[in-house]
Amino acid sequence: MTTGLEAGSLRLHSGAPWWLLQDGLADISAPVREPIDVAIIGAGITGALIAANLATEGARVAVFDRRTPATGSTAVSTGLLQYEIDRSLSDLIDLIGEEAAVTAYRWSWDAIDRLAGIAATLPESAGFERMPSLYLASRRSHRKDLDREQETRERVGLGSERLTRQEVLAQYGVPGHGALRTDQAGVVDPVALTRGLLSRAIGCGATLQGRTAVHDLTRSGSRFVLETERGDVRADQVVFAMGYEVPPRVLPDRVKLHSTFALVTEPADHLGAWDSQCLLWETNRPYTYVRPVSGGRLICGGEDFPFKNPDARDALLAPRARRLEHRLSKLLPGIRLRTEFTWSGTFAETRDSLPLIGPSRELHGAFVALGYGGNGITFGAIAADILCCLLRGRHPPRDIRMFDPAR
Length: 407
Fold this sequence. Notes:
Strand order of the largest sheet: 1-2-19-15-18-17-16-7-9-8
Number of domains: 2
CATH architecture of the largest domain: 3-Layer(bba) Sandwich
Low-confidence stretches: 1-22
CATH superfamily of the largest domain: FAD/NAD(P)-binding domain
Radius of gyration: 21 Å
Mean pLDDT: 91
Helix content: 25-40%
């Protein structure tokens, strides 16, 4: 049954993830006091990471969102944190060259540690937990791909452990054809993390304007003028952290949209040999992934499909959820699991599976922070570090050309 709740790129069904139901921030922290240095459009996880970074450095920041903060796609993110992107390091090297590919992976590797450090300094942990990631070979023919990927990672110093089929079954009770295991991974409550970051930014002087749409953006001299329903706001710089909802004049359409599906199980009595030891994802494309959450529940997601429109996407929810249930029973055989919540959503993906971070070539003085693909939270942390440097007149610590929105 559809609840009728629209969450930006997602429409929730049969209830909602429990973290969406918790008390949140007030929609408006205070009136915007001009002039401001940076206006951030989007109060999801990426906007919150950027706002907290900038505000703690003393920048005058205002964050705007046409919804209640953290109730867009952030609210139904499944909260996986992985340094691996949707395209393997080996394949990415073939596509963009070794230096750029390895640098992108190192940014992503470091983002896990960055998020761990952030969560540790919040009043509450935001549900952050380090957890190994197991990348399963779905088919026998995929074992060579895993061997190649493992050799590539070892050569460039991004470690993982190659496990045989027998080792995976003995240690985790998961059937397959071998796997790569890495400890550089984790999980988080995305809404709690977003709210904690926004609270930190407000505590450092930032302004939060939830349920405040930005209707238009113009230039007046050296500043931007944001036309909002609460009045005009002037800012020296603007960051768009709106996902695929970013206006075309800021970023021409160069992504593909996909529908995706997820479910949450009821608490399980037992989880077998796996017993929440790790994240699971697989070499099949589109891949299925599984992560544990508190109370013996599991989240399972995947079954991605090209996006047409919200109604067509939502019509696929029931059959796609059944396919996820079937795949989950194959990944964790012998465990009795019952689905409690399901939802569908939409995400954007670039050709190389890397985010778009940096200045907009189409709108001078504006920046974009768009963590497209399956690593939105990790990419958001990368965007926060890069844009904090660029907006404050510093050079990022390593090359960022592979994230250039105009690439």
